[in-house]
């Protein structure tokens, strides 16, 4: 069975959800192996095996994460050269897309980014991409080399499937070119205790309709264990950080449930959330364009509707 590599996305050994999703996809294509770069590989190995990694390639030299993404592409390329996998799956975030591009050049392979589905087809690895900020769906087949596919978070439901998870060390010396940009400082954002916007299963977003008071939005989000998003109008007004902006010039999210409160539904906002599985809007204007794409709409004042909804969720 063909080998399929998954680049592990982790925080100090703690596996991010995107990795379990990629391993779930990898199992449909062939035999999944994980490529782990960084320290604490032993912690990660157990989780990787739980989600189906037959083998875990480990690069844990201290220089692994001291530089920007070039070393990761070089390390991955060394495994690709050795294993000739059918595909390499990478999370489709900004670092992942750069790694995919660099890996494509190094291995002369076809690259697809922003994939939402990946299957084994008669002519090779077939992908479904969500492009132009989610307004088009494109099917493409990689015809050259190992298919390098960056997959959007939340594209599949995770299914555990225990496997061996045997460890194999990656033995390479990073080139000077890979070490051309060194990280001099890396400060994590102060944690809100909420899930990361692009990984969250539920996102509750507020817009100009909040008038700057995100309290009801945050309380409803917290009752659901959701991430908080914001429209650009809310961000431009300084009510919420840009890191939480959803849309064309913000983040693209595709959660199971997206709740838009006090957001009109401009095309640029839709571009970041219209692939959400279920969309709910709360808006006091029944003519608001957001109602054109919702599954459920509430015409009402968010300051009345959200506290009521929070109470109901808390009681449930
Ligand atoms: P508005 O359009 O002002 O809508 C506010 C809504 O709240 C209205 O529908 C109103 O009826 C409702 N409302 C008011 N009070 C209440 C209440 N008490 N209860 C319930 N409802 C209430 N926008 C993004 O969001 N993300 C982007 O990434 C983005 N990128 C852009 C890129 C470009 C190049 C450009 C030109 C624009 C971009 N925009 C983006 C801006 C976008 O065009 C809209 O201006 C913006 O999305 C509007 O935000 P909003 O819906 O919060 O505000």
TrEMBL record:
InterPro entries: DHS-like_NAD/FAD-binding_dom (IPR029035), ETF_a/b_N (IPR014730), ETF_a/FixB (IPR001308), ETF_asu_C (IPR014731), ETF_asu_C_CS (IPR018206), Rossmann-like_a/b/a_fold (IPR014729). Coiled coil: none annotated. SUPFAM superfamilies: Adenine nucleotide alpha hydrolases-like, DHS-like NAD/FAD-binding domain. One of its GO terms (biological process) is fatty acid beta-oxidation using acyl-CoA dehydrogenase. Keywords: Electron transport, FAD, Flavoprotein, Transport. Pfam families: ETF, ETF_alpha. Binds 1 FAD per dimer. One of its GO terms (molecular function) is flavin adenine dinucleotide binding. It comes from the Bacteria. FAD binds at residues 208, 231-232, 245-249, 262-269, 283. Its cofactor is FAD. Residues 4-187 form the Electron transfer flavoprotein alpha/beta-subunit N-terminal domain. The electron transfer flavoprotein serves as a specific electron acceptor for other dehydrogenases. It transfers the electrons to the main respiratory chain via ETF-ubiquinone oxidoreductase (ETF dehydrogenase). Belongs to the ETF alpha-subunit/FixB family. Heterodimer of an alpha and a beta subunit. This is Electron transfer flavoprotein subunit alpha. It comes from Knoellia subterranea KCTC 19937.
């Amino acid at each position: 069975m063909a080998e399929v590599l998954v680049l592990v996305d982790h925080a100090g050994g703690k596996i991010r959800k995107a990795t379990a999703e990629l391993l779930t996809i990898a199992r449909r294509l062939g035999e999944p192996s994980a490529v782990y770069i960084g320290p604490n590989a032993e912690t990660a190995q157990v989780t990787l095996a739980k989600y189906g990694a037959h083998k875990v390639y480990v690069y844990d030299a201290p220089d692994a994460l001291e530089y920007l993404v070039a070393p990761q592409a070089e390390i991955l390329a060394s495994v690709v050269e050795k294993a000739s996998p059918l595909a390499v799956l990478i999370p489709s975030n900004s670092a992942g897309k750069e790694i995919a591009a660099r890996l494509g050049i190094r291995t002369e392979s076809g690259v697809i980014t922003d994939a939402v589905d990946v299957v084994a087809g008669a002519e090779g690895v077939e992908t479904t991409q969500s492009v132009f900020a989610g307004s088009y769906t494109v099917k493409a087949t990689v015809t050259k080399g190992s298919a390098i596919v960056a997959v959007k978070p939340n594209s599949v439901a995770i299914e555990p499937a225990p496997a061996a998870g045997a460890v194999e060390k990656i033995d390479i010396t990073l080139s000077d070119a890979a070490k051309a940009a060194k990280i001099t400082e890396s400060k994590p954002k102060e944690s809100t205790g909420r899930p990361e916007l692009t990984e969250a299963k539920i996102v509750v977003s507020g817009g100009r309709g909040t008038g700057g008071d995100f309290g009801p939005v945050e309380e409803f989000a917290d009752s659901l264990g959701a991430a908080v998003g914001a429209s650009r109008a809310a961000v431009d007004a300084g009510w919420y950080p840009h890191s939480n902006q959803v849309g064309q010039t913000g983040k693209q999210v595709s959660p199971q449930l997206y709740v838009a409160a006090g957001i009109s539904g401009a095309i640029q906002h839709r571009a970041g959330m219209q692939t959400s599985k279920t969309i709910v809007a709360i808006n006091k204007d029944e003519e608001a364009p957001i109602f054109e794409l919702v599954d459920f709409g509430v015409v009402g004042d968010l300051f009345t509707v959200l506290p009521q909804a929070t109470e109901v969720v808390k009681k449930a």
